[in-house]
Specification:
Length: about 850
């Protein structure tokens, strides 16, 4: 017997699952629904199959081909215009005219015993046999009424409750004699239930209904049926097998396909099905009644229950998904909650801390900003968020959000912003992801006629120095994000080696979003060269700016922790030439071991402090952030970091550079002005954006306005005489020079510095509320000034209450406010900070 699979429907009630794919290809239990039907036919010995198509026919044909991979023979018939359930079958009359044939829908889940149906058809001598199923709510189906012998006596197509005289519904599975095809004319629209079967009934032709007994059938007509049909299979309520092979199943109904990596601390709660090559990390919870598609990544602490995930879905740390459906290539970031009945379309990205409420539908390629609460379905909108650049470049989950194709487009966009023939210096960290992304970036740059100077794997300060020294048009650096090992960070620099200005970033974004890439002739494609002397040029310039003799004569012993960064390959030799007795720790590159979590970093610093004390070294230093930042440990094992380190370095620079001009962020300690003025230095306060510090230090700034030294609260220092960017190698060498020329010791200086009581809080706030809160806080400006205080508007709102101050600053990248405070002691600082935290929370609208 031959079979006909009807697969022409659009599946409108399943949208957004069917927005970009036909209903027969919608994934159910990790394979297309129609594939379940093909395998059902094959199990019952039916291998010659005709398929009728209409909506997105090419995609279905492309997936199944001729059926040989599944051990069947498929023939395709495509409707140019809709011909109805019967008219579409008429097209295949030549293949079906010789014997009875079976018709079945390509978008249902069933384990019906077809051999019994065929035997029933033959026994009854039926012209048409209709397979029926009991359904407690038959309103959405065609009701078929039969007599005691099973002969059909009446049809009711989608009846009202007043017309419901039976609960046996038409499943769309038929056994038909070939003569029935003669009831139709070619290329005309016919429907079996509306046109053909009533005619057979009127003519008295034998037509029987086979009522399924113990078999499972679900039309998968809506999103709830879609989920619940898969729950039924997982719960063992059907005979539908899971996949071509069952996979690895234990006694508790857990199926795990090949290639999966599941952390021993993860909880897998049956019944659950996990596809190929999935990664499930520590303390994640998956199940019960969940289907995880191939290549899914479930981060630590995530919880997934009664949910259907398609292929290549990413679920971030501590996210909570319950009773929802997530389509292919969706990215669910950290701390997201998706409630029961919600559907997230393919390619959607849901940022940190967002909530998608129950029954909400997100159509494909939507982006939900961080901290949002989605209370209505999103159908229309753009694929990309409003901004591409974050605080220090373009960042996202490695190989999920930041992919090679995106990197190539970024390269073409950056190159399009530059003139044709310009040169870009390209560098990276030592990891394989950065290598892959940098090569994609370089391809994009070359394609728009921009030359590339490839530095391969290189510490960021050396790469920035090469940009400055080679008169390049700019630079790009790819690395693991400093505070999140899951993310890739791509940084873009101008010709001075500093971050692109906000205006320049917008120009690159405009090219990216419009895909307005410059196209050049094949002969104008950019040239790729390798920067063979970048390190030598850096070292040569380095020697001209450091008094090596003074440092050498001081002969300090140093313990240097390179934290598995690239700096360990270069800087120990420089320290050796400066005459330092160096003990190098973790001095080989390994991106997997770089401490990024707060606890790991603290443990590394504690270990460094112990070694400094044990060896009785003069000084310890930890190099971080790809060679841009540092933390000190004095001879007593005291860790000097953040604001204490900023203050120490500013005081030392002021002491050794008369009339120095120093720049610090607006959040720096209040004591700086008084401490540095003792040596004639002046302090300029800037926004907290590091590019503001850099912009004041490069050679293009007029001499009268140029800053000599800049520092931030994260261990970053700029000596503008050398280069206008953070450089921990040069900064530490200059510190050694200052100690040598003054005869001072770090511990002595730290003892003399006044205590600083700085505190910070982060207050979550939806994007749409930020402007309203800032407007209301501005009303306090007059009250503060009338009370004898003052307000600075350098970055956010900084209120001074005598010598105490509090800064309220909306975050430019995330849905939150930062509140910084400083007072005379820790208790006063906490009171002042909490006062403004409560003000922000009180100004938020109820429910947001």
């Amino acid at each position: 017997m031959k079979a006909v699979i009807m697969a022409g429907g659009e599946g409108t009630r399943l949208r957004p699952l069917t927005s970009h794919r036909p209903k027969p290809l919608v994934s159910a239990l990790n394979m297309p629904i129609m594939e379940h039907i093909v395998l059902l036919l094959k199990r019952h010995g039916i291998t010659d199959i005709v398929v009728t198509l209409h909506y997105l026919a090419d995609e279905i044909q492309g997936y199944f081909g001729d059926g040989s991979d599944l051990g069947v023979n498929l023939s395709w018939f495509i409707e140019d215009t809709p011909l109805g359930t019967a008219g579409s079958v008429k097209q295949a009359e030549e293949q079906l005219k010789d014997s009875p044939f079976l018709i079945i829908s390509g978008d249902a889940l069933t384990d019906v015993n077809l051999e019994r149906v065929i035997a029933w058809h033959t026994e009854k001598g039926s012209a048409a046999t209709i397979v029926l199923a009991h359904n407690p709510n038959p309103l959405e189906y065609g009701v078929v009424i039969t007599n005691d012998e099973g002969r059909v006596s009446r049809f009711l197509e989608k009846p009202s409750w007043g017309e419901v005289f039976s609960d046996t519904v038409n499943t769309g599975i038929y056994i038909l004699e070939p003569g029935i095809l003669g009831y139709m004319e070619p290329r005309r629209n016919y429907d079996w239930s509306r046109d053909i079967f009533p005619r057979l009934l009127d003519e008295g032709r034998p037509m029987f209904g086979y009522v399924m007994d113990g078999d499972y059938w679900c039309d998968v007509g809506n999103l709830q049926d879609y989920r619940e049909s898969q729950y039924a299979v997982l719960d063992g309520a059907t005979r539908i097998p899971l996949g071509h092979t069952p996979g690895q199943q234990d006694a508790n109904r857990i199926w795990v396909a090949d290639g999966c990596e599941i952390d021993p601390t993860a909880q897998i709660k049956p019944p659950v099905m996990i596809g190929r090559n999935c990664v499930i990390k520590a303390n994640a919870e998956v199940g019960p009644s969940s289907v995880i598609g191939d290549q899914a990544i479930i981060e630590s602490g995530a919880k997934i229950g009664r949910s259907i995930l398609w292929d290549n879905v990413y679920v971030g740390v501590d996210s909570d998904l319950y009773g929802c459906t997530i389509c292919s290539h969706a990215t669910i970031k950290q701390g997201v909650k998706i409630q029961e009945g919600a559907v997230v379309g393919s390619g959607c990205r849901i940022e940190d801390g967002s909530t998608v409420r129950s029954q909400i539908k997100l159509w494909p390629d939507k982006i939900i900003e961080a901290g949002s609460t989605v209370t209505m379905s999103l159908v229309w909108g753009q694929k990309w968020a409003g901004t591409l650049f974050r605080k220090h470049g373009v960042t996202g989950i490695a190989n999920v959000e930041i992919t090679p194709d995106l990197a190539c487009k970024l390269g073409a966009s950056f190159g399009g912003y530059l003139r044709r023939g310009a040169t870009v210096v390209a560098s990276r960290d030592s990891g394989p992801v950065a290598r892959m992304m940098k090569r994609a970036l370089m391809s994009g740059l070359l394609s728009v006629g921009v030359n590339v100077l490839d530095m391969s794997s290189m510490p960021l300060p050396i790469a920035r120095h090469t940009i400055l020294g080679s008169l390049s048009g700019g630079g790009v650096h790819v690395r693991v994000a400093p505070n999140n090992p899951r993310n890739t960070l791509i940084e873009f620099f101008d010709g001075h080696g500093i971050y692109l200005s906000v205006n320049d970033e917008r120009k690159v974004e405009t090219i990216f979003f419009r895909e307005d890439f410059r196209r050049v002739d094949a002969e104008q494609v950019g040239q790729l060269e390798f920067a063979g002397r970048g390190m030598e040029q850096y070292a040569e310039d380095f020697r001209h700016h450091v008094d090596a003799d003074a440092v050498r004569n001081n002969a300090l012993s140093v313990v240097a922790d390179f934290a598995y960064g690239r700096l360990g390959m270069y800087y120990p030799a420089i320290l050796g030439r400066l005459g330092c007795d160096v003990v190098a720790l973790n001095a080989y590159p390994d991106v997997e071991k770089i401490p990024r979590a707060t606890a790991d970093r603290a443990a590394g610093l504690a270990n460094l402090a112990r070694i400094v004390q044990t060896l009785r070294a003069d000084l310890g230093v930890l190099f971080e952030a790809d060679g841009e930042r540092l933390t000190l440990v004095d001879a007593n094992g005291r860790i000097i970091e953040r604001d204490a380190l900023l203050t120490l370095m500013c005081v030392l620079f002021a002491r050794t550079h008369p009339d120095a001009r120093i720049a610090v962020p607006v959040t720096a300690p209040r004591s700086l002005e008084a401490l540095t003025s003792l040596h004639g230095a002046s302090i300029t306060r800037t926004r907290t954006d590091t590019r503001d510090l850099m912009a004041l230090c490069h050679s293009g700034v007029p001499a009268a306005s140029r800053i000599d030294f800049a520092a931030d609260s994260s261990g970053g220092f700029i000596f503008s005489e050398f280069q206008p960017t953070f450089d921990a190698m040069f900064s530490f060498s200059k510190l050694l020079e200052i100690l040598a020329t003054t005869g001072l010791r770090i511990a002595e200086i730290a003892d003399e510095l006044p205590a600083s009581w700085l505190s910070e809080a982060v207050v979550k706030c939806p994007w749409e509320e930020k402007g309203n809160i800032m407007r209301n806080l501005m009303r306090e400006v007059d009250a503060v000034t009338e009370g004898g205080g003052r307000v600075d508007l350098i970055d956010g709102l900084k209120f001074y209450h005598g010598d105490d101050w509090v800064l309220v600053m909306p975050d430019s990248s995330d849905p939150c406010f930062h509140v910084f405070a400083e007072a005379g002691d820790s208790e006063a600082t906490e009171r002042l900070k909490l006062e403004y935290v409560r003000k922000i929370e009180a100004l938020r609208r109820p429910g947001l």
